[in-house]
Amino acid sequence: MGSELHYQSGDCLNGEVNNMKNKAILLAELFTGLFLIPGLASAQGQTSSATLTITAQVQSSISLVFTTDTNGVVLTGSGTNVATLNFGSVSQFISPPSKVTETIGATSFTVSTPFDIRVDKSNVTSANYALTAEVQTADSVNTWMIDTFPLTIVPAAATSLTVTGVYGTDVVHRLFLTIPFSAGASVISNSINFVATAN
Amino acid sequence: MKLIIFIWFLLGISACVAWGQRPPSHTVRVTAIPSHMQPNRRTSWITFLTAPSGSPVHSIGSDHGVLNLGSLSYFPRADVNDVEILRQKDSFIVSTRFGVRIDLPNDHGAGTATVSAFLLSSDPLASVWVDGVRLSTTPGIIGRQVSYGAITEHVLKIAVPISMPAAQLLDSIGIIVTPD
């Protein structure tokens, strides 16, 4: 293609002398090309090829993590799916710890603090998620609640917190623990199991 | 006119020389062969191997291996096949190792070769690298001066976007060995 352009250009512009010169150039390029052709054929003939097939099953997945809320107590294990929330020492007659809210009722007092839950998704076509929670150990004295939902205790069905959870954002929830005045001083400890399900 | 006749004469000689380079018997490959792969004379054998701490490679006949990465997910479970998963914001990168051995026939083990890799087929949403070289349909060099008979270990990485629906991932990598 390059040779052809040289030839046409010379022919049109400069007459017979340039025409001969271009013919010479054409011949030189042609010889070069002809010497290269067998060489290329030889190099191509020595290659070997193989195929590696890669298989995998990409699975959909979602993840739930707890994170410390700006206005809540610091979670131990924040950023993971196993966290501990410690209200600290609480009483009817002393001020609550920082970032713990206390309300006094007629027969009990309630402490509460916010915490965040973040649910992420991958390789799943789901617009939102449902979230449930459930107290894991029976507690006949105290009452546990998240947001406005009293929590059930195993083996009862888990409490639904939302059915339209938004992926990829820290969603604020608030844990309420109600302690009756009649309860003796003790360490209160329990586990709450959260389950997010892709819709 | 003389020039044209002369050119045709030279082309004829060239065609005869090139024809002499063809293999004595025809070799037909079952797999799709892109334009840059020519049916050729076999000068070496390529074997895919399982690397230590790498995903299992199964050899299927000569010059064909299957690398099984198992089940993959952004939030991995315990049943991954010796695969490392690196989570990024919008994707996760799957990484594993595999081995390649190039042998010459008749125990002619001397010499080295250049190894190139390219994509024969792949999921359009996933990106594939071998030894840091992002693969495309154009061969990219992944090994220089590779000795015949030696096992070379290569790192395979596949980026899977989280927006990709859960499905079977099936990629094919072509390997070309060119003697130095």
Q: Explain this structure to me?
A:
The complex is a heterodimer of chains A (199) and B (180). The N terminus of chain A is likely disordered. Chain A is 21% helix and 38% strand. Chain A is elongated, with a radius of gyration of 38 Å. Chain A folds into 2 domains: 43 residues, no CATH class; 138 residues. Chain A is built from 2 helices and 10 strands, in the order H-H-E-E-E-E-E-E-E-E-E-E. Chain B is built from 1 helix and 11 strands, in the order H-E-E-E-E-E-E-E-E-E-E-E. In chain B, strands 1, 4, 5, 7, 8 and 10 form a 6-stranded antiparallel β-sheet that branches. A 3-stranded antiparallel β-sheet of chain B has the order 9-6-11, with no helix packed on it. Chain B is globular. About 15% of the residues of chain B have low confidence. The chains are: A alpha+beta (199), B mainly beta (180).
Put the structure in a nutshell.
The complex is a heterodimer of chains A (199) and B (180). With 199 residues, chain A is an alpha+beta fold.
**Helical residue percent of chain B?**
10-25%
Oligomer: heterodimer
The number of helical runs of chain B is: 1
Main sheet: strands, sense, barrel of chain B: 6 strands, antiparallel
Any idea what the radius of gyration of chain B is?
21 Å
Beta-strand percent range of chain B: over 45%
Indicate the overall shape of chain B: globular
Counted by DSSP, the helix tally of chain A is 2
Rg calc of chain A: 38 Å
CATH class of chain B: Mainly Beta
